[in-house]
């Protein structure tokens, strides 16, 4: 079917804007301006829409994609998709390894300032730094979104060998201590994780619903969660819950480290430190454990 001439012009303007090849005329007016003010104003929006389509092609389950997979997922013309992907790599929106692409660290880093205005992040940052200094390991703060958990703040370990964490990093709930904390104190989180599917990441990932349910009960009784190689081989973590003013669960706070520095024999020593740090973060958010317990006793 023949394309509308206006669509052809819009597509050409759109691609030129991304490539940086839009040329000015004899004066200072850019080429897209000469094509009509409304069309020139719409062209960047068309570009952004297509960039969002490309970013939306990635997910936890499909964190790395080839160019053909991106093209199929977006429905964009192959030439347009290739051009946009190339420019997104150049700007750090995507990273390329061989013939595979993933969300770029540049994009994650640009998103990080968006968390700085949150009271949760601002009030928890000194706690994370103190926990990092006391344990020597990277301390992270996680919040839940659907069946996933996202790092919204961290204090990075000073060890030369450490687990890689970045603000904005998204992980599944069912694999790792922070996710289990979020599920243990929030039944909705467990329901969403199970409904989404318990995917296997390592031989230690819990994919059985009954086993997961039993583990969450143990986590709630203990007041913290510890996990070993559930999401990444050779990695371990300990996390505890952070509560808000009205006693609701607002986040999970914990440490992550290589298995050689954090293994089951270290839990008795480090778990109380993590629990105390999470309690400190809760107090900074206005949570009073004594008042909340009294309310629960009186029904």
Describe this structure as you would to a colleague.
The protein is α+β, with helices and mostly antiparallel strands and 299 residues long. The chain folds into 2 domains: 5-103, Winged helix-like DNA-binding domain superfamily/Winged helix DNA-binding domain (Arc Repressor Mutant, subunit A, Orthogonal Bundle), CATH 1.10.10; 111-297, GAF domain (Beta-Lactamase, 2-Layer Sandwich), CATH 3.30.450. It is 48% helix and 17% strand. The chain contains 12 helices and 8 strands. The strands form 2 sheets. The protein has a 6-stranded antiparallel beta sheet, with helices on both faces. It is globular and about 60 Å long. It starts with a helix and ends with a helix.
Order of helices and strands: HHHHHEEHHEEEHHHEEEHH
Structural class: alpha+beta
Q: CATH superfamily name of the largest domain?
A: GAF domain
Kindly identify the CATH topology of the largest domain: Beta-Lactamase
Number of helical segments with 4 or more residues: 12
Write a short abstract of this structure.
With about 300 residues, this protein is an alpha+beta fold. Helix content is about 50%, strand content about 15%.
